[in-house]
Amino acid sequence: MTILIFGRDGQLGSCLVNKLNQEKINYVAFSKKEVDITNNDLVKFIIKKNKPTTVINAAAYTLVKESENNKKKAFDVNQYGVKNIAVACKNADCNLIHISTDYVFDGTSCKPYTPEMNTNPINVYGKSKLKGEHELIKHGGKFIILRTSWVFSEYGKNFVKTMIQIANKKRNINVVNDQTGTPTYAGDISEVILNLNTKFDDDKVQEIYHYAGSPLCTWYDFAKTLFQILLEKKLISKMPILIPTPSSDYYDGLKRPTYSALCSKKYIQEFKVCETDWRDSLKNITVKL
User: Fold this and answer.
1) 113 is catalytic
2) 174-191 per-position pLDDT tens digit
3) Which candidate in 113, 125, 155, 211 is catalytic?
């Protein structure tokens, strides 16, 4: 078995590489600088040359705010890049696991989103990611779409690192308290991906799964927990003053789902695993930040 990863330099890609090394699974991985997934000929060449059993697409244009002003880039990567990979995988008869997002939903639900619920993205990033899913469903062979949310890790740029950087500069920190979601550690997603890969024993797999951490919380709750952990571990000397703030105070013209919690029940029941608590993952990675 050989796994091929697109997007190895992101949070998930980095954790995936660590997981595959630990499990001693054969893989090849490419950063976005090495392989631009919008280059159809290059994508076909890479897949044909490496002959992977499974391709994991962790590559995406994830700059949510910038997507509003750079629609072409967002759709080139998140829609047409996915189409390139889907067609190449189908032609090469290899499996494809594609990573998607909670932003394909509009945030009007009052309960965590299941894979079967209607999608209705409200910003360019979400729309481009949903179009990528549609391209995969239309052109793909054996595939799994994995939607996740509020990803954090010891790698790359994320909310956890941003909060720590802000705390190093000022005492009072305003944090949004009216957006609710499910934080998810990229390392936990890596394990889920390896479990999902076993699904391809069935030659007709075309599935959508959700996977996210538990429990749901607001960004304010997330930040408060982070700093409590840092204080307990004596990684900071004093707790910053967190000020719960409505998202309207930060309005920048971008619509964001106010509720984007994902329900992982389908995955948990099918693979007979327990929910992962993002607070435990946060405790484990704080020493690495």
Assistant:
1) no
2) 999 999 999 999 999 999
3) 125
